[in-house]
Design a protein that fits this description.
heterodimer, A: alpha+beta, Rossmann fold, OB fold (Dihydrolipoamide Acetyltransferase, E2P), 2 domains, 8 helices, disordered N terminus, B: mainly alpha, MetI-like fold, two-stranded antiparallel sheet, 2 strands, binds adenosine-5'-triphosphate, binds magnesium ion
């Protein structure tokens, strides 16, 4: 998949600093493929918008190169990049009607009025807002404004569309509906989309691939499933879904399986990346992969654990236990018949397989 | 009373809050009424209402009602006016009466005062001969027309005068003789100057407001401070500063001469003329343009310009199609404010305008203070007021006053 000829956008060692001191984006390498839906996922202030703005041409990288279809775009002004941008707060022009907003990109391009009307009509059809062209943006609901913003960005017939938290201001139900819409539109037009969000669920639903941002760096770029199943950094492991992180030290490594000492216990874990005995590691174990009363022949990691408390959550129970030096170890057990009557204060046996326990290089300290 | 209201609260429950609200604004209402509305109304009424002559010569005027207006009036009119002029002289109102009649027809002041003085000695049945003997003007029909006109309590005379018009003795309205026409051209000049000032302020103020509105907060505060400094310095200090800068031996001229850009004998005349008025007034009025613009621009997200650029617009297109239209409420408010202030501005032209830099308000001041023709001053003021109101209505029609943003 990652062959260079279908790379649409490439970031190469891109860094950005607004004030000359703090690096907002640090040595970023990223490739977006032709027709791909790529999401930049990260906490607030991690530099996602900055990346989009550099790509759109509103900010210049401090160093490094950005290429679109193989061509460096440093000397290309925003209007010549042919990129559709959907801004965080829509940025619809309040003094124009919906039709005026949609016609704007066509107008500045000198397209004649008749053709303009036709294309505005088609754009409204695409986002299912027929008959609203005479409304003002302020007379639309949030979701409708969002659709207008998308339709307008598509007005320049871009092959690349950037969206900065387009659903941030919408309530949950509308978000889900719009996620579906965005995906539908992207598929029907076959455009490449770079999407920004800090909502991991949204990233999972929409994206072909997700790039996880942390403090101006990309921690991992992968398919959503891969991010969940095979996180390569503790940050990713805990950012995507829920994870138990245990801190330990490697005793020995053999065929990807390392023996790790954590909280006075020996844990067998799947080793990610190179390491040698004595190195600190972070173990990541998903709460739903932990088993109560494990069978010895299936689970090589078995420990005694004290239940701190239990929360009933309908479809599953959530146990907080003390094990391997952690008092915050979470276990999820499905609410099925015979899940076992456990009570807070009980001592139980817990277990997990080495494959479900990933030994990762610890994150550098903040 | 609504059935939902508790009965025991009664009238006070119903009107209590309103009454209290009225009570709270009452001092202000009284203040404005006393110091603004009342003087304004009195002043404006003077432009159409003048009872002085009518009060001094009631009988004469009554007799003149029946006069045919073609021949010199009959003997009893002469007798009456002689008597009433004498009385007026004794009551010391003759001066005011004579001034008013003189305004209708020049030269009559001396006729009236002389007649009133001499008529005492000349008593006898032949009143007409006596008066004509005192001054030949009494034999002129125009004199009597002037007296009759001056005796009208309600008159459009001042307004006509302010528009360089007059009512001829046959009743129709015609332009005044050329040498008396000053007001229309002055009004016209005031309009042109005010419009140019408004344009100049917009041209100078718009970029400044833009800079302030989109600068980082600290720098914006500093810039705003600089714009507001003129508000905090005395008008006289500012004007004096302009005199120091602009006069013939002033800083600018001397610098230019020192640099060899102009010859010593051809120093620029930049003050005590229209240039001086324009420069100083632009300075005074600029904040009134910048502030409303700034208030509006601050609410326009910068993203809009980025959005326009990403949609393919050039910077110029983005400005004219996206930014400028959104600033129109501020442009309207600022322009209206500057224009209205400029059209009635008085002190600066008076100080630095010289002869050619005078505006209509200086003429109002002249009639208030020097010629004491308050009726005419009020009429010119009334015309200005009407003009501003019309402008306001037009603005409201075109833009909508509720879209005006002052801050
Ligand atoms: N124009 C700017 N000038 C100076 N600093 C900026 C500017 N824009 C962003 N920053 C800083 O750069 C950092 C990254 O900002 P950015 O907007 O890229 O984050 P983000 O990931 O989009 O966050 P969010 O999810 O809150 O939108 C932040 O610390 C922010 O304060
Ligand atoms: Mg952002």
């Amino acid at each position: 998949m990652a062959s260079t000829h279908n790379a649409h956008v490439e970031f190469e060692h891109v860094s950005k600093s607004y004030d000359g001191q703090i690096q907002v984006v640090r040595d970023l390498d990223l490739t977006v493929h032709e027709g791909e839906f790529l999401t930049l996922l990260g906490a607030s202030g991690s530099g996602k918008t900055t990346c989009l703005m550099m790509l759109a041409g509103f900010e210049a990288p401090t160093s490094g190169t950005i290429r679109i279809r193989g061509r460096s775009v440093h000397d290309l002004p925003p209007r010549k990049r042919g990129i559709g941008v959907v801004f965080q707060n829509y940025a619809l022009f309040p003094h124009m009607t919906v039709g005026g907003n949609l016609a704007f990109p066509l107008e500045v391009r000198g397209i004649d009025p008749q053709q303009r009307r036709e294309r505005v009509r088609r754009a409204l059809q695409l986002v299912r807002l027929e008959g609203l062209e005479d409304r003002r943006p302020t007379e639309l609901s949030g979701g409708q404004q969002q659709r207008v913003a998308i339709a307008r960005a598509l007005g320049v017939e871009p092959s690349l569309v950037l969206m900065d938290e387009p659903l941030g201001a919408l309530d949950r139900r509308l978000r889900e509906e719009m996620q579906y819409e965005i995906r539908r539109i992207q598929r029907s037009l076959g455009v490449t989309v770079v999407y920004v969000t800090h909502d991991q669920q949204e990233a999972m639903v929409l994206s072909d691939r997700v790039a996880v941002f942390r403090r101006g760096r990309i921690e991992q770029v992968a398919l959503p499933e891969t991010l969940y199943e095979e996180p390569e950094r503790p940050f990713v492991a805990s950012f995507i879904g829920e994870n138990n992180l245990l801190h330990g030290r490697v005793l020995s490594v053999e065929h990807d399986i390392s023996r790790v000492e954590a909280g006075g216990q020996i844990v067998q874990a799947f080793q990610v990346g190179p390491c040698k005995p004595g190195d600190p590691v972070t173990l990541a174990i998903r709460p739903e992969r932990v088993c109560l009363a494990p069978k010895p022949e299936l689970y090589s990691n078995r420990f005694e654990a004290d239940i701190q408390d239990i929360t009933f959550l309908g479809d599953h129970l959530r146990l907080r236990v003390a094990v391997c030096g952690s008092t915050d170890f979470i276990i999820k057990i499905p609410n099925i018949v015979g899940h076992g009557a456990v009570l807070a204060g009980d001592r139980v046996q817990v277990g997990w397989t080495p494959i479900d326990c990933r030994a990762l290089t610890p994150d550098e300290k903040e | 009373m609504s059935s939902k209201r508790p009965a025991d609260g009664g009238v006070f429950a119903l009107f209590g809050p309103q009454l209290r609200a009225v009570g709270l604004v009452l001092p202000l209402v009284a203040f404005i009424g006393l110091t603004f509305v009342a003087p304004l109304a009195t002043m404006l009424s003077r432009s159409v209402y003048d009872p002085v002559v009518a009060a001094a010569l009631p009988e004469t005027l009554r007799l003149l009602q029946a006069w045919d207006g073609v021949h010199v009036p009959p003997e009893p009119v002469f007798e009456t006016i002689a008597r009433e002029l004498r009385t007026a002289r004794q009551e010391r109102s003759l001066g005011r009466v004579a001034t008013r009649i003189n305004r209708v027809r020049g030269g009559l002041r001396s006729v009236l005062t002389r007649t009133a003085r001499r008529v005492r000695e000349a008593e006898g049945p032949a009143w007409r001969d006596t008066l004509v003997g005192i001054h030949a003007a009494w034999d002129d029909v125009q004199t009597w027309h002037a007296i009759r006109r001056a005796g009208e309590r309600f008159t459009a005379r001042h307004y006509l005068h302010a528009l360089d018009l007059e009512r001829r003795s046959d009743g129709h309205i015609a332009p005044r003789p050329d040498e008396y026409r000053v007001y229309v051209s002055l009004l016209w000049r005031t309009l042109v100057v005010s419009l140019s000032l408004t344009g100049l302020c917009l041209l100078l103020g718009y970029p400044v407001a833009y800079l302030i509105a989109h600068a980082p907060p600290q720098r914006a505060n500093l810039l705003l401070l600089l714009v507001l400094v003129p508000f905090w310095t005395s008008l006289l200090v500012r004007t004096t500063a302009w005199i120091v800068l602009l006069q013939t031996q002033g800083v600018i001229n001397s610098t230019l001469v020192a640099l060899g850009l102009i010859a010593d004998e051809s120093r620029l005349a930049m003050i005590y003329n229209m240039t001086g008025t324009m420069v100083a007034m632009t300075h005074v009025l600029l904040p009134f343009m910048v502030l409303p613009l700034y208030a509006v621009m601050r609410t326009i997200p910068r993203l809009h310009m980025s959005a326009a650029a990403s949609l393919g617009a050039s910077t110029i297109q983005a400005f004219w199609r996206v930014y400028w239209p959104q600033t129109l409420p501020g442009v309207g408010a600022g322009s209206l404010l500057v224009f209205i202030l400029a059209i009635g501005y008085y002190i600066t032209p008076a100080l630095v305008g010289g002869r050619s830099g005078q505006l209509i308000s200086n003429m109002i001041a002249y009639h208030m203070q020097t010629s004491l023709n308050w009726g005419l001053a009020a009429a010119i003021g009334g015309l200005l007021l009407a003009f501003v109101l019309v402008l306001y209505l037009v603005y409201d029609r075109l833009v909508g006053i509720e879209r005006m943003r002052l801050g």
